[in-house]
Amino acid sequence: MMQVSDYPLMTLELDDRGTFVAVGSENGNTTILELSHHLVDLQRNEKTLFLGVRLIQLRSIVLCYTRLCFVSYPTLCGAMHVCF
Fold first, then answer.
1. pLDDT for 70
2. The 9-14 sheet, strands edge to edge
3. How does DSSP classify residue 84?
4. How many angstroms separate the CA atoms of 79 and 61, rounded?
5. Nearest to 4 by CA among 32, 42, 28
6. HSE-CB for 72 with a 13 A CA cutoff
7. Fewer Cβ atoms within 10 Å of its own Cβ: the N or the C terminal residue of the chain?
8. Alpha carbon 59 to chain centroid distance?
9. Residue 39 CB contacts under 8 Å (≥ 6 apart), including other chains
10. Are 39 and 21 contacting, i.e. CB atoms less than 8 angstroms apart?
11. What's the confidence (pLDDT) of residue 84?
12. CA torsion, points 51, 53, 56, 60, in degrees to nearest 10?
């Protein structure tokens, strides 16, 4: 484990190949980290597992936004249907 900043982290971005990670902190500093090729190159079945985890994350984000919408704007969201 490594500490990137003494301030709360606000953003995390990967380059297209996943080799570099840019980490932005609350005070405006950006740290760029280079990952080991062992972490970058996907092994057998890892891509499927990664996509499955990402799908679960996206579903929970949609559910959170839907719940927030119904709490904040119940009449506006009454006709909205989100199905998975």
1. 66
2. 9-14, 20-25, 30-34
3. -
4. 19
5. 32
6. 6
7. N
8. 12
9. none
10. no
11. 42
12. -120
